[in-house]
Specification:
Length: about 260
């Protein structure tokens, strides 16, 4: 049994130890601990953090969250994802199948077949399609560059003239076949909405194109002569014809591009 004297001497020591334990603690992670207060039952309760410890979401994570607070915690990865700039969704371009058929996702069919690519976006239902494989085509094969299954075809001379009488086509669009013929079986005429025969048959040497500034005359011995887009205005077939930004060329010539049209 402990003597009364020893019992009384031990009480102040215990009280002193409890007092020291209640003033500060160091957490298990090695960070400086805040002062600890205890309730009437002796259970520790955290003191309120100081103003300097109250970081905004921006400072706490290094990212601007730009989102309303939620009930649950936000992970570091979610914070980073939400901080990235949000771009407007851009639908994928509708690509026609290899056979050139129309798009099936509700978008408008592209103007060019799988064998070609559009030089520029279509304008007023006219597009300029260039061969993908840099394989040139005659006038008779030029329509294969258009998405025929999607409603596109080689533009006729009348359609092209209506669009490009007063101004030339875009600069990337020179040298594209048009479905127009100014000499057929040797007979020269005003432009006809047709594709010529592409046999390179020779005959009499005649003129069939005149520049609108009267500085150039085009002619040859070939019996089949078509039209292609050009940056210079020419009167085709007849010297009195209304000019357009095109030029006569033999139908058997090889070009890389086609002017494709779609009926609205």
């Amino acid at each position: 049994m402990m003597s009364p004297t020893r019992q009384y001497l031990g009480l102040p020591l215990i009280a002193a130890l409890l007092s020291c334990a209640g003033t500060a603690e160091t957490n298990r992670f090695g960070h400086d601990a805040r002062p600890i207060s205890r309730d009437s039952a002796g259970i520790a309760k955290d003191a309120a953090p100081s103003d300097s410890a109250k970081l905004s979401p921006d400072l706490a994570t290094g990212f601007d969250l730009h989102k309303p607070a939620s009930d649950g915690p936000v992970s570091d990865s979610a914070a980073r994802d939400s901080a990235l700039p949000v771009e407007a969704a851009v639908p994928d371009a509708a690509t026609p199948p290899a056979d050139g058929s129309a798009a099936t996702d509700g978008t408008a069919p592209l103007p060019c077949s799988a064998k070609a690519a559009a030089l520029l976006p279509p304008l007023n239902n006219i597009a300029f399609c260039r061969s993908n494989a840099t394989v040139s085509v005659t006038q008779c094969d030029a329509e294969a560059l258009c998405n025929v299954a999607g409603g596109w075809r080689l533009c006729t001379a009348s359609e092209y003239r209506a669009a490009y009488t007063q101004q030339p086509p875009p600069s990337l669009s020179y040298g594209a076949w048009i479905a127009g013929c100014v000499r057929s079986s040797g007979v020269v005429s005003a432009p006809v909405d047709a594709i010529c025969n592409c046999a390179a048959t020779a005959g009499a040497n005649v003129s069939y194109g005149w520049s609108c500034d009267n500085l150039d005359v085009v002619g040859s011995i070939f019996l089949e002569v078509g039209l292609y887009s050009h940056q210079r205005c020419y009167r085709a077939g007849q010297s009195t014809d209304t000019g357009a930004y095109w030029k006569p060329i033999i139908a058997a010539a090889s070009l890389l591009e086609a002017v494709c049209c779609r009926t609205p």
